[in-house]
Design a protein that fits this description.
This protein is of the alpha+beta class and 349 residues long. 53% of the residues lie in helices and 7% in strands. The strands form two sheets. Strands 1-4-2-3 form a four-stranded antiparallel β-sheet. A three-stranded antiparallel β-sheet has the order 6-5-7. Strand 5 and strand 6 form a beta hairpin. The longest helix has 33 residues.
Length: 349
């Protein structure tokens, strides 16, 4: 066998270098890049690409300050490796169009990717930024970046698809806002229902016996509290006012009684005695014992007792001692007849 020619050796070396560069760039291993004079120039291109992507992302954010617009993160495709340029490795597919992204998103919605927690951190998306991959899987944007830095390769954590594209979406935030709005509405409806129920309980008497009793007790307590609040705080002053009003009223009634019941003359007393004799009642209504005889009956010698008898202006007879005891019991008030309750003038007979 002959030695390999110089051209074949060059081709072999070139192919090895191309494959090595492709592997390093594909696996995100910047520490293993070839150390050659063009190393710095090779590193400048990815940095320029990152800056260009950041500028385009900033433009998307400025166009949509609310944050509901979806946009692709890797707007500019990465540069081809040497192996891809030569044809040793197939070039990456073209960037997805809007129609293709719509199909990817519809597939993600059907699989409910945004409703499930993030596969990396196992936490719900809530309002945190999330990204949709070209393989229809959804992750937190920060979680995906941390995974790429840790694994040093661009590979989907779920299906291991390499060289995927990422698109910022807001499905998780939209679902979380809808959930929050639903909870707020449920809480408000419950609060309104409870408030209406309490208002109805304050006005409508319940049918249950125990609840009806409690309802009536609360109403009575409210009335008592209202009455106590409306009362005077100074009890002594309040009672003194009542005493003054009673004394003034008593004086007025006494004056009226004096006007309505004038003094009787001898003819009136004689007429009253004749009425008593015609009625024929000879017992004291207070002690229920026999009365002493009138002057006309004393002449016949039928005296029953030595106690004197009092004749009232209302034509009723009582023992003097019983009537004085009744007046003493009445106190300061002007006594009235025990039988007809009228104010009287008396005369001993």
């Amino acid at each position: 066998m002959g030695l390999p020619s110089k051209n074949s050796t060059r081709n072999l070396v070139f192919t090895s270098v191309a494959f090595q560069d492709h592997i390093n760039r594909t696996l995100f291993l910047p520490d293993l890049l070839l150390s050659d004079p063009l190393h710095r120039n090779k590193l400048k291109a990815p940095r320029t690409l990152r800056l260009r992507n950041e500028v385009m992302v900033k433009e998307h954010v400025e166009l949509d300050p609310v944050g509901d617009r979806e946009y692709v993160l890797d707007v500019t495709p990465p540069p081809l490796t040497l192996a891809q340029r030569v044809g040793l490795v197939p070039a990456p597919p073209e960037r997805l169009s809007e129609d293709e992204w719509s199909q990817v998103k519809s597939r993600s919605v059907q699989e409910r990717e945004s409703e499930h927690p993030c596969a990396i951190c196992k936490e719900a998306f809530h309002l945190q930024p999330q990204v949709l991959l070209s393989c229809s899987h959804v992750f937190h944007r920060a979680c995906l970046q941390s995974f790429e830095r840790f694994s040093r390769r661009k590979c989907c954590p779920m299906c291991r698809t390499e060289q995927y594209e990422t698109r910022v979406i807001h499905d998780g935030a939209r679902l979380y806002k809808h959930l929050c709005a639903t909870r707020i509405q449920a809480c408000w409806r419950g609060h309104a229902a409870r408030k209406r129920f309490h208002e109805i309980r304050k006005t409508v008497c319940p049918k249950d016996k125990q609840l009806r009793r409690k309802f009536l007790e609360e109403k009575l307590q409210e009335l008592n509290d209202c009455f106590v609040l409306n009362l005077h705080t100074d009890t002594d002053a309040f009672l003194s006012e009542i005493d003054q009003s009673l004394s003034s009223s008593r004086r007025i009634f006494q004056q009226l009684e004096r006007k309505l019941s004038p003094e009787l003359n001898e003819e009136d007393w004689a007429r009253l005695q004749s009425q008593v004799m015609s009625r024929g009642v000879w017992e004291c209504p207070i002690c229920l014992t026999a009365l002493c005889s009138l002057p006309e009956t004393e002449a016949d010698g039928s005296s029953h007792s030595q106690r004197r008898t009092a004749l009232l202006s209302c034509s009723h007879l009582f023992h003097q001692h019983c009537l004085e005891a009744l007046e003493t019991f009445a106190g300061a008030r002007r006594p009235s007849c025990p039988l007809c309750r009228s104010v009287y003038h008396r005369r001993l007979i």
